[in-house]
Amino acid sequence: MAKTEVILTSNIVGLGAESDHVKVAAGYARNYLFPHALAVPVTGANKRRLESLRQRRAERESSELNTMTDLSKSLHKLLAVIKVKTGDDGKIFGTVTSGMIADELKHQFDVTLDKKKIHLELPIRALGEHEVELHLHADVKATLKIRVESQNPLPTPTTVPAPEARRDDPRHERRPRRSEQVVITDRRPGKGERIPKPEKAAKVPKA
Predict the structure, then answer these.
(1) What is the pLDDT of residues 65-75, one digit of tens each?
(2) Does residue 188 belong to any structural domain of this protein?
(3) 131 with 79, same domain?
(4) What span, in angstroms and rounded, lies between the C-alpha atoms of 104 and 110?
């Protein structure tokens, strides 16, 4: 496939930035880059445009750096909530992806962020709070806090109330004090002892 050299006039992800000399397929340059004013052929006249292209590139990169620096400060204060499906045991079906996080940032905070800037070292497979690293710019990194919650309510353990003590439970009966205890004996009186007679109730005079 024939190749040709071009000078990029715009930033093209995966290819280069303004003022870069790159080699591309001749058909790609002829049918896409040139018609969309994304590149120009390498000629003497176009080389003289390099200074202005470099200046525009420097301004764009400076603006991107400032924008991403401000964005990193804002994202550091946010807590994105990700709703996922779980089983009865609380385990997640699948994993939380960078695309899901980018969608929730857009939905919850109206922040548009390329999912490629969301760096997940390990797949998120558990509920709870997590910290996600963001590569916003070559010179700017940030941390985003997310909380993964279940879409369906998890079963809560039921607590059985302790049974109340029964009133007739002998363990809860009041025991008489030692001074209140009555000693009952079946000892018969010996010789010379008299059995005390019970006191008679006082007679009430008739009216």
Answers:
(1) 999 999 999 99
(2) no
(3) yes
(4) 9
Q: How far apart are CA 4 and CA 18, in angstroms?
A: 17
**DSSP code, position 63:** H
Q: What is the CATH number of the domain that holds 79?
A: 3.10.430.100
Q: What is the pTM of this model?
A: 0.59
Q: Find out whether 41 and 4 touch, Cβ atoms under 8 Å.
A: yes
177 within domain boundaries: no
Segments forming the whole domain that contains residue 144: 73-150
pLDDT above 90: residue 89: no
Q: Which amino acid is at 186?
A: D
The pLDDT score that the predictor gives to residue 46 is 85
Rounded to 5°, angle at Cα 76 from 72 and 80? 115
Spatial separation of the C-alpha atoms in residues 96 and 136, rounded to whole Å:
20
